[in-house]
Write the C-alpha cells for this entry.
Amino acid sequence: MTSRRTRDRLISRLKGQGISDEQVLNTIRETPRHIFIDEALSHRAYEDTALPIGFNQTISQPYIVAKMTEVLVSTGPLKRVLEVGTGSGYQTSVLAQLVEQVFSVERIKPLQDKAKERLNQMGLRNVHLQHSDGGMGWPSKAPFDAIMVTAAPEQVPEELLVQLAIGGSLVIPVGQDQQQLKLITRQSDLEYKTRIIENVNFVPLLAGTIR
C-alpha cells in the first residue's frame, strides 16, 4: 500500500481537487506518510482522509496538508516558519522540505516525542521542536515569515498575530461548529488583511500542556 502507484493515485486526486503547485505535490508524493501513523492503519496511509493518532488528535487528510502548504508557500520564499500543533509530524515534515527553518510547538508530549523520532528517521535537521501551549506560539523565536496552525481556535489568537514579521502570513482554521480556513497577512504593526480560503473541519486548539 506504500507503492509508487498508490502515491501517484493520491497525487492525481489532489490535482483533481485543485492543488496545482508542483513542488508541493512532489513533496507529498515523496513523503512517507505511512511512518507517521500507527502500523495498524498504515494500509490507509495514502487515502485522502484524516486518521486518528491518539489523544483525540488526527493526522490531517493529505488534501488539507497540500492546501495549507500551497497557500503558505504562495506568499513567497520562507525562511522561518512557525507551526502550531506538531501532532504526528507529517505536516511538519512537508513544511521542512519546502522552507529553511521550521519551529513547531506541540502541547502533548508523547505526540511530540514520536514526531521527533519520525523527523529524525527522515533526516530532517531544520526542525526545532518545543513542548508548550500552542496558542502562545514561540515568542522567543519570533518574528516569523509565516505561521501555520493545525487546530482551530474560536478566534484568531492575538499572541500569534504579533509574532508575524511585517509582510508575514498566518494560515489558520477558525471557528467552532462552522470553521473557515483563513489567510491573514500582516501589512503593518497594527494592520492585517484577511482572506477566507474555504470551509474546513479541524480539532479544536486547546490551552495547556499534557505530559
Summary: The chain has a mean pLDDT of 94. The radius of gyration is 16 Å. The first helix runs from residue 4 to 16.
